[in-house]
Amino acid sequence: MLKKLLIFIGVLTLITPSFSQRRGTPTQADTLNNINSFVLQMMAEWKIPATSITIVKDGKPYSSFALGLKNTQKNIPNTVNTLFPIASCTKSFTAAALGILVDEGKLDWNKPIKEYMPDFQLYDDEATRTVTARDILSHRTGLPRHDYVWLFANNDRKTIFENLKYLKPSKPLYAQYQYNNLMYMVAGVLVERLSGKTWESFVKEKILLPLEMNSTVLNYSEMFRSPDYAMSYKSENEQLVEVGFGSNIDAIGSAGSIKSNALDMTNWLVMQLQNGQYNGKKIVSEKNLRENHSPVQVVFPAEAKYPELGFSSYGMGWNMNVYRGQQRRQHNGSIEGFRSQMTIFPNNQLGIFVTTNTSAADYYYVNIITNFIADNLLNMSVIDWNSRLKKERDDAKFEEEKKKKEHDASRKMGAMMSHPIDYYAGIYEHPAYGVLQVFKTDKGLRAVYHNKQVELAHFHYDYFEGTGFLEGITFQFMTNQKGDIDKITATFPNAGDVDFKRK
């Protein structure tokens, strides 16, 4: 399937590319042909089914194009109108929405949000009383990700909001940058409380319609009604496999539920470069857009892997750093099998948006394409980011395999469970994470969580490891003083230990 797809990509470009651009000077045409050729090469090397790209230059639309297949099973070409979930790139829209509410005098960036929402409650009382809109948008509340509260779950926004009080922080308030989707969900609830409209209705009315982003939608039900949207894929045994749309991202909409296309995202980049204006209309004031773009929190861990990159900080909905001496604002987006990246060079009036419908290349592909376009349009020598990031990918894979070997070596061979296997079966519950049901099977233990069944692989003693969508999560069955198994301590990535108590 991959070989067939890559052959199609070449034919699509040479014969009938889905391409929309201004007729430019020969130099501009040469540059765009160079970019187009490079993108095709990278699609082949990184096994990308489809990609859509838009470029804003000198603060104006410059080029938008789409390549590959939005649906590999049906051989349907991608177009500049094809909708892709942009995931966490949505966060910049939510930050702008709050900026509009500040413009309207309904919100103060630095006023505790508890004063606007008396029912807002976190696990930590000090954080509950103190955190502001600026804090929840800059990932410094002390709360880790806790994404399995919503990911693949049936929980709706109201339930998730009400259950925040059960989620333990992992750091003190303001101590460290910790990326957090749930706080952006809270920002969406704040939009609703202050405006009297849902986050979706407010963003559509105040941002999408004035920006003429007429194809952009805010949930999957709207996307499925569109005639033009991309399927998402992952790679399994060198084959493309559909991922589907079951993440439940719409439940935390303001953190990542926007679905857009290359043409519409052009207008978003133009507005960002024109200080909140679009076609002479003010979307958000320059002052409050600048607040979105102002660094608030140093991104942890503080590192600059390459000499061309500066240390990263986070404002509100945007990462800020330096690329080859030029100021850069950026945000990535990841959901299901989609990866997106939007980039602004404010002092150069350059904007770039790249999206794709596979998780196989993670963010490597979108970074390579963004940097290549920037090098060309900023008139810099072109850096071979492809070789660098391939090495980075290979190094990361090596480290992952090394850690797995070390982990496997720590296993106490022959260390049996402390109880007969029937004793482990039962219903365990956490007030925010929900119900974890454990069954005995002929092969061992099976868990049902968020309506999905997975095997629990015995490691040693009462320690088990998740499989399937729970891969990477460990489960420790805990015994009380009476000798009964009374809870499971599950260790979630970017969240830590979560106790599911036996019912």
Summarize this structure as a short list of keywords or feature phrases.
24 strands; globular; Lipocalin; 503 residues; alpha+beta; Beta-lactamase
What CATH architecture of the largest domain would you give?
Answer: 3-Layer(aba) Sandwich
How many helical stretches?
Answer: 14
Biggest sheet, open or closed, and with what strands and sense?
10 strands, antiparallel
Structural class: alpha+beta
How much of the polypeptide forms β-strand, as a percent range? 25-35%
The best one-word shape is globular
Alpha carbon gyration radius? 24 Å
Please give the share of residues in helix: 25-40%
User: Can you count the beta strands?
Assistant: 24
Let me know the CATH homologous superfamily of the largest domain.
DD-peptidase/beta-lactamase superfamily
* Low-pLDDT residue spans: 6-25
Mean pLDDT: 94
CATH topology of the largest domain: Beta-lactamase
Whole-number tally of structural domains: 3
Topology readout:
Blueprint: H1 2-15, E1 18-21, H2 26-46, E2 50-57, E3 60-71, E4 76-77, E5 84-85, H3 90-103, H4 125-130, H5 133-137, H6 157-162, H7 181-195, H8 199-208, H9 220-224, E6 233-236, E7 239-242, H10 253-256, E8 259-260, H11 262-273, E9 277-278, E10 281-282, H12 286-292, E11 297-298, E12 313-314, E13 319-323, E14 326-335, E15 338-345, E16 350-356, H13 364-377, H14 385-409, E17 426-430, E18 434-440, E19 445-449, E20 452-460, E21 463-465, E22 474-479, E23 485-492, E24 496-502
Antiparallel strand pairs: 1-3, 2-3, 2-16, 3-4, 5-8, 6-7, 9-10, 11-12, 12-13, 13-14, 14-15, 15-16, 17-18, 17-24, 18-19, 19-20, 20-21, 21-22, 22-23, 23-24
